[in-house]
Task: inverse folding
């Protein structure tokens, strides 16, 4: 998902002078967050927290000290369970960098990702997937609509606002340098997402199969919808549009993949294509926020709306598996809304404080001269192409 999928997807969308900085960020986040997860993240997110259990996990698995080949979590070896959730833990902060590319320093960005992982991702993960207080309320999130896309999308929006736009935005076109690279990354993401969704069943069973089928159909439906939207608005379907639609569909089905029917997934995909299409134009053209690679309007919006729609399409009357509560669709919708609101406030507030603190202490943004020359040379002393 993150390597090589997101690295290629994001890498092709930036300008030539910044391609290595994006790939470097994806590799570094994968390495750093994997260590953070092993040292303390997993233990705080997904183990029992004693008297603090509703809010945070315990310290029993710091450094994976009690990890062994025989211990099970449900039907899975704990090593598999921990490694599987590690991929979510890596992917969430990696998404954020897409909003900030082409203008941020490498080391402050890495510091932000580590702190955000511990202060935002880990608590939210525990609240919903670690039998925390939101889980006890009945908040439904099968594969990360709230935990990953909602939390990362809000952080990306906050970062884009605080750091400010790239030079030339919005008057100068800041075009992708290699959509072929982006297409390869998008294809890898699509395949990998089946593992995200189906794997969330934590066993190879019918639930995993339905989650995988729903994920694929939602992405397909959103992608076709985006083709139609492009055709209506611009007169031609775009390659970037068909890929963006696919990603929007994948994000919007994340919360409900194992809860909704295939028909529900296709309907959610249509909503994803329309909602995220207009969200991009609203963020960039109306609010003039330079979320460079559309992290909030695609991932944030799809995660938030997908979680809300899960509360509707998961109902048995609409072909779903049945809602968690017995008080009807509207009640479950309100539970979903509350879970999303809590995540938005928590991620938004902590992200704001982290960006402000790091900017004051060490500075986040590169100088105008270095931004013009490109981050590849300035931050890494290499360039992606020697043609």
Result:
């Amino acid at each position: 998902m993150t390597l090589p999928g997101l690295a290629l997807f994001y890498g092709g969308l930036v300008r030539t002078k910044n391609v290595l900085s994006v790939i470097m960020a994806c590799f570094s986040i994968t390495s750093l967050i994997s260590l953070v997860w092993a040292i303390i993240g997993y233990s705080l997110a997904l183990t029992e927290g004693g008297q603090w259990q509703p809010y945070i996990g315990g310290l029993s698995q710091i450094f994976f000290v009690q990890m062994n080949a025989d211990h099970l979590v449900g039907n899975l070896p704990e090593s598999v369970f921990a490694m599987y959730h590690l991929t979510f833990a890596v992917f969430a902060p990696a998404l954020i960098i897409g909003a900030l590319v082409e203008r941020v320093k490498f080391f402050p960005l890495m510091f932000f990702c580590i702190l955000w992982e511990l202060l935002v991702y880990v608590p939210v993960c525990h609240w919903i997937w670690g039998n925390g207080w939101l889980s006890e309320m009945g908040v439904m999130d099968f594969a990360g609509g709230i935990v990953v896309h909602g939390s990362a999308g809000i952080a990306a929006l906050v970062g884009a606002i605080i750091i400010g736009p790239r030079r030339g935005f919005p008057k100068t076109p800041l075009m992708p340098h290699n959509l072929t690279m982006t297409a390869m990354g998008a294809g890898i993401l699509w395949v990998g997402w089946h593992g995200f969704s189906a794997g969330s069943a934590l066993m190879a069973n019918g639930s995993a199969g339905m989650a995988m089928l729903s994920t694929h159909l939602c992405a397909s439906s959103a992608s076709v919808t985006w083709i139609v939207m492009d055709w209506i608005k611009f007169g031609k379907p775009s390659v970037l549009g068909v890929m963006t639609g696919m990603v929007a569909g994948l994000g919007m089905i994340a919360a409900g993949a194992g809860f909704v029917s295939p028909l529900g997934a296709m309907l959610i995909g249509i909503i994803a294509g329309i909602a995220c299409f207009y969200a991009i134009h609203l963020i960039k053209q109306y609010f003039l926020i330079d979320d460079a690679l559309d992290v909030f309007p695609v991932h944030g919006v799809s995660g938030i709306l997908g979680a809300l729609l899960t509360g509707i399409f998961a109902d048995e009357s609409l072909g779903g598996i049945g809602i968690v509560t017995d008080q009807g669709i509207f009640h479950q919708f309100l539970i979903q809304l509350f879970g999303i609101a809590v995540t938005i406030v928590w991620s938004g507030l902590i992200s704001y404080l982290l960006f402000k603190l790091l900017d004051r202490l060490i500075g986040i943004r590169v100088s105008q001269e270095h931004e013009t020359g490109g981050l590849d040379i300035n931050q890494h002393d290499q360039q992606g192409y020697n043609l």
